[in-house]
Amino acid sequence: MGVKNFLHELKLKVSPSRIFKAVTTDADDVLPKVMPGVFKDSKVIEGGSFVPGCVVETTIVGGPNFKFKVDDIDIGKCYIKYTELEGERIGDKFEKVHHEVATEASGDGGCVIKFNSTYFAKGDVVPSDEDINTHVKKSSAFYAAIADYLVANPHVCA
Question: 55, 81 in Cβ contact below 8 A?
Answer without folding.
Answer: no
